[in-house]
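tl;dr need the bound structure. longer version: we got a ligand (iron/sulfur cluster) that a collaborator sent over and nobodys looked at where it sits. i said id run it. heres the input, straight from their email, havent touched it
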Amino acid sequence: MVPGVTTPLAIPVRQLVEFACRSGDLAAGVPGPTASAGLRGHQQLQRSPPPGYRPEVRLSATVALDEFQVELKGRVDLMCAEGEPPAIEEIKTCLVPPDRLPDAQVALHWAQLKVYGFCHLHASGGARIRLQLTWYDLATGRSYADAEELAYDALRDFTLAALQRYLAWQRLMQHHRRQLRAAAGALRFPFGAFRAGQRAMAADIYRAARDGGQCLIEAPTGTGKTISALFAAAKALGEGHVDRILYLTAKNSGRLAAADMVAALVRGGLPAGSLLIRAKAQACPCHTGACERDAEGRCPRGLGFYDRLPPARERLLALGTMDAAAIDAVALEYQLCPFELALQMAPWADIVICDFNYVFDPLVELSCLRDDGARALLLVDEVHNLVDRSRQMYSAQLCRSDLDACARACRHDHPALSKALRRVASAMLRWHGSAATAPAIGRAAPAAVSRAVDRLLQGLATAADDPYPEPLTEVLRALYRFAAIAALFGAHHTCMARAGARGDSRGDSRGDSRGAYRDVEVKLLCLDASEYLAHSYQSFQAVAAFSATLSPADYYRRALGLHHDTPARILPSPFAPQQLGVWLYPAIDTRQHQREHHLGAIARAIGAVYAARPGNYLAFFPSYRFMQQVAEAFTAMFETPRPLLQERATDEAQRRAFLDQFECGRPTLGFAIMGGVFGEGVDYAGDRLIGAIVVGVGLPAADTEQELIRAEYAAAGIDGFDFAYRFPGLARVMQAAGRVIRSERDRGVVVLMDRRFGHHQYRRHLPRYWHPRRCSDPSTLQGELQAFWQEAPPAPNNS
Ligand code: SF4
């Protein structure tokens, strides 16, 4: 630090107290109110303030402290500046009376209020202030107030002590950021020269970061999009255009690939603090038996968490890379919950790699990633997945049989809860009505179901001291999601209930007029989440969205909530055209009512592809049943190879075992599902995969939900079939085909089997760098493929 130079630093009050005034345990048990319920509670109290009080008053105070010129900023819920003494009031919503809230939480509420009190007195020159904390219990509608009158000196001492703790950390952070910026300026691309397309992609992302814009980039497989995006982002970070990079992916494989590329940048001299956020189940040591609960069933990693957090934070900052191994090691050393430790580091990491959820899901989002004033660049990889994922994030569902099963499980130990679960189930049944099979559709949230859910959750909160029965955990999660989505229910939502969705008999005959058990599923469906996404983007400095499949760009711009004029770039393939042979095989009809007549023809054509050059192939199908039917036809026709079938529900061990077959040295013909775990995000480099056979155009099943999506787009004047079926289907096709060529040395074939691939509406959306040949019978196909394999391999294309 240069002597005499002050550094301006704006600190939101909330951030200060969250960082410096927390102590005690991690909050356990039932979560508090959802954000929207909390907001409604606030507004309710603010609507009728005491005389002389104004709502939502901005406060700020400037303090010179050591080398910093600190500006504290915040907004207090209610304020009476003219009182004698002046008074401020902060409202907190809860689901239990405040005497049942954890001490640590109450202390944090008071800390925030004290700093607000300091801000007002410091700016106004006053000597004393009345501070009031009002807890509004949403469960009962009662409010509880606690007030204290404090002098300026006491508030100043409290605030300065918190600031000293915060500034000590800021000194470390600022030192780190100075080093980072200097290193980022000198950073060189870690893999020698840019490949074709990489420079253009990096330039687009850098421009978006610098100018605060959006960009959409289709980067074919092999472009090296991850490193191009991260390199451009690192440069923007180095030049001070952004403060943080958020790298979002849909799949774990994408996150690991991003973490590898960050590691390459770090090896190249970028001292970035990068954080990989895993799912809770993956990070939790209790899942693997590595930690033991105490006699009351509490996790020791959560007890006293905030007391042990500060040194662990410093340790991780010094380490730089906060990958899974580093988080686990530091969490073990300080006996902290690794998942929560990672979340605590999120505001301080230069690069955060995480799932889409943490930014876009209203129930999972990390507010610290968007509300702390840092200018973040959002890199959204595999963004084609976000269309569907975002719909799911804003949807919710309840299943009557799940609720009834829980009600039975807890009827002895938790009779009130059991009753509340039954009440929700009955409300669902009533909402569905007596329609036996046809789904019931409504454009409003089911008020009676929502009321029953709210009452159950409020009852649960008041019984929070008792441990919940184990089977309730999943259902509880579904209930919370349902309550939150019901509160958000808007113009793009619809409610759908249908009977018998999960089987008809659960050993309980309640609620059915004919005496037989009728299962009912109630869904709050978000048909188009683009407005929610667009709203989320506003919290970030820039958004760069990319994927190997983003054609047509207009569809993705609209469905992803990007500006209508967001620049879209389609990069050329980095590979030579001779590396990939593409055939259209239109002799096949895979439409639902025709596919059974074509099983033999499909099997014969797959046999021809394999016979042309035995090796590793994957055949992709639109459904599990269809895949099995073709497998049976194939096995009846050919003795070898025996197709290796994707299991219906694939866990990690099964996924690994399936992939291992492609590395065992024996030719393998795999059958998998389009859009499934083997159709995206898997790298089958070299001879691990020499061909993909895509059976069908990948359209989503035409069920009621998909038809509602189609109607939603059609009502907005958009071609509903394109948006609900054709484009999502083509994305699956392209992803499946994209597994084949992964490097300059690979050669391979893609065979697209379906008459619709010959139609203009499909064909015009296939990649421009494909030069497909048409072929209509198996022996010609085999001959052409053999000729392809006999061609000399092309020279590597490094342009
Ligand atoms: S370690 Fe596991 S059980 Fe313990 S607090 Fe963390 S997530 Fe919960």
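gonna send this back to them w/ a short note. Residues 503-513 have pLDDT under 50 and may be disordered.
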